[in-house]
């Protein structure tokens, strides 16, 4: 039988245990009450969540179930982009602007932009793959980390603002393309693949020379030239004259190209500030897009009356737009900050955690959607009268497109 003394001690122990429990619970409640939850930034909320025992158990399970090593791709990216987000963005701008411009020295002046359709399809796959596989998930959900789980906090108006930024980027290119079409009298805007629009323009400046070279009676056409003094002048004069609308189209294309390169620079800065992986994949996608884009612009300038050296110089000047865009993007990220920045106080845009720096990535995603669809897809949809040839060409284009998208998955 339990003695009275033991019963008293047991009751006292139980009372002390309950008192300690209530005191600790009140302390935790009071500490939580003192924290202004509305003033916490996204990194601070994430840090608080990582201290939870359940989250820590999930982190341990994730590391144990999916160990990751350093792949060849990650090693290459780490070698190419070893610095801070700002340094990496500047390096990426150099990578996407330098080699495509140097390749123009190897391009013949009479290159046909329509022959680049397979490369254009490859670039489309890369751009859309980067946008759909990397940029949009990063914009709305953030990037996965191999050693810990992450949680997404749904805020009122946050997704709405991100969607507005995507639409603004898309509409910006629509307005630019529409303005160029109005300025050139509706003869074609700034087509990033430069296939369909250039095929319309090319006959204006080269009709006479092309027809004479391709004519079956070319020898007889040249023979009377020795006996008639007016014929050579008649033949040479149309080759020297360039239609004024074609000249205007060439200069307007330079302006559009400069503007387009600014958005490429913004893409570089915003993607590297989002994460190194997003920045690296965006660099690859933009690089493959820049090759047919630069060659197409080069061909248009030649058709507009530029010499090869002048066209290369003009393309180099427009490439400086990418550097300008990168510097603008870095300034916005550093001065305006983003939701992952430390030390930011007060509410963000429209009461959300978003900052001005967070708007750059969705803006560039909208421009990529325009370039990868509206600006290029119409050319890939064009077909000729030969069904067999067009079917084989279509298969090749789709294969190139899926290859470009597959690289974004690697």
UniProtKB/TrEMBL annotation:
The keyword DNA repair does not apply. Residues 185-241 are annotated as: Disordered. The chain crosses the membrane at residues 76-96, 116-140, 160-176, 310-332, 359-381. Keywords: Membrane, Signal, Transmembrane, Transmembrane helix. It is a multi-pass membrane protein. It holds the Pfam family Zip. Residues 188-202 have a biased composition (Basic and acidic residues). One of its GO terms (biological process) is intracellular zinc ion homeostasis. One of its GO terms (molecular function) is zinc ion transmembrane transporter activity. GO terms for cellular component: membrane. It is found in: Membrane. Its main location: membrane. Residues 1-25 form the signal peptide. It comes from the Eukaryota. This is Zip-domain-containing protein. The lineage of its organism: Eukaryota, Fungi, Dikarya, Ascomycota, Pezizomycotina.
């Amino acid at each position: 039988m339990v003695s009275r003394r033991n019963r008293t001690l047991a009751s006292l122990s139980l009372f002390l245990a309950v008192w300690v429990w209530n005191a600790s619970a009140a302390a935790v409640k009071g500490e939580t009450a003192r924290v202004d939850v509305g003033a916490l930034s996204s990194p601070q909320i994430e840090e608080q969540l990582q201290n939870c025992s359940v989250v820590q158990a999930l982190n341990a399970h994730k590391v144990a179930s999916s160990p990751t090593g350093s792949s060849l791709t990650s090693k290459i990216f780490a070698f190419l982009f070893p610095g801070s987000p700002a340094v990496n963005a500047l390096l990426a701008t150099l990578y996407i602007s330098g080699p495509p411009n140097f390749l123009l020295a190897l391009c013949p002046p009479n290159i046909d932009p329509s022959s680049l359709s397979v490369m254009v399809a490859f670039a489309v796959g890369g751009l859309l793959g980067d946008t759909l596989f990397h940029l949009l998930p990063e914009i709305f959900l953030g990037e996965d980390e191999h050693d810990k789980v992450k949680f997404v906090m749904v805020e009122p108006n946050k997704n709405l603002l991100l969607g507005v930024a995507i639409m603004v980027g898309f509409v910006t290119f629509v307005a630019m393309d529409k303005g160029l079409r109005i300025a050139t009298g509706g003869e074609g805007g700034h087509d990033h693949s430069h296939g369909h629009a250039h095929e319309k323009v090319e006959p204006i400046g080269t009709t006479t020379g092309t027809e004479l070279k391709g004519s079956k009676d070319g020898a007889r056409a040249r023979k009377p030239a020795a006996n008639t003094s007016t014929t050579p002048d008649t033949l040479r004069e149309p080759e020297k004259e360039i239609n004024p609308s074609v000249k205007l189209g060439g200069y307007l294309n330079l302006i559009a190209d400069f503007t387009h390169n600014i958005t490429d620079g913004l893409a570089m800065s915003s993607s590297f500030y989002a994460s190194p992986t997003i920045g690296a994949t965006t660099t690859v996608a933009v690089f493959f897009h820049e090759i047919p884009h630069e060659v197409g612009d080069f061909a248009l300038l030649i058709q507009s009356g530029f010499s090869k050296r002048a066209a290369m110089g003009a393309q180099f000047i427009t490439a400086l737009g990418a550097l300008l865009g990168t510097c603008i993007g870095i300034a916005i990220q550093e001065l305006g900050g983003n939701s992952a920045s430390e030390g930011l106080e007060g509410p963000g845009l429209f009461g959300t955690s978003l900052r001005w720096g967070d708007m750059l990535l969705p803006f560039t995603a909208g421009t990529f959607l325009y370039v990868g669809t509206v600006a290029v897809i119409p050319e890939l949809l064009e077909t000729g009268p030969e069904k067999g040839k067009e079917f084989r060409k279509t298969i090749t284009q789709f294969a190139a497109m899926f290859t470009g998208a597959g690289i974004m998955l690697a």
